[in-house]
């Protein structure tokens, strides 16, 4: 039975899973959930797949999982993937950065995306104070990353791990949401290396861009 993944191609969270699956050689059956049409907010979706009304969601037989990091760790366990790290120390370092990414990094990039992109699409006024607060948090986190990445190609060890994938996710919307990443040269160089070295990361970037630009054009929004 195929492993199903539910999500919208414009989602950076889905991209984390689809890119990782390609790198691990795991085939997924994609099930489209149009977030812009509210398809994840239906009673059926919430009762069967994710009570939070969010994607991606994995369905593997009787197993239902949500949250991209949990999904990726589940998939990695099926193939003993080195994306989790290759030593005990590396595995805990990977988890450290994955947890940090959710707490100190992506939560604030999501806030800015919602304010600058989501509210523009909905025709609502932006909360500039909230944007300023979130940008401050992003800059503080980006400074930590920029220092850590000095002389490094990867977040942990000498190879790609889930730490890289989780932290790279906000680059999926960087141009649309105007995150201040360009102020941090080591961060930019690290992400450029991911795009150049891992075709799956570049391919999924194109997928996100195509979906987002097509949707924005369909509703007449220019950011």
Automatic annotation (TrEMBL):
This is Glutathione S-transferase. The keyword Transferase applies. GO terms for molecular function: transferase activity. The lineage of its organism: Bacteria, Pseudomonadati, Pseudomonadota, Alphaproteobacteria, Rhodospirillales. Residues 1-83 form the GST N-terminal domain. It comes from the Bacteria. It comes from Inquilinus limosus MP06. InterPro entries: Glutathione-S-Trfase_C-like, Glutathione-S-Trfase_C_sf, Glutathione_S-Trfase, Glutathione_S-Trfase_N, GST_C, Thioredoxin-like_sf. Belongs to the GST superfamily. Gene3D superfamilies: 1.20.1050.10, Glutaredoxin (3.40.30.10). Pfam families: GST_C, GST_N. Residues 87-216 form the GST C-terminal domain.
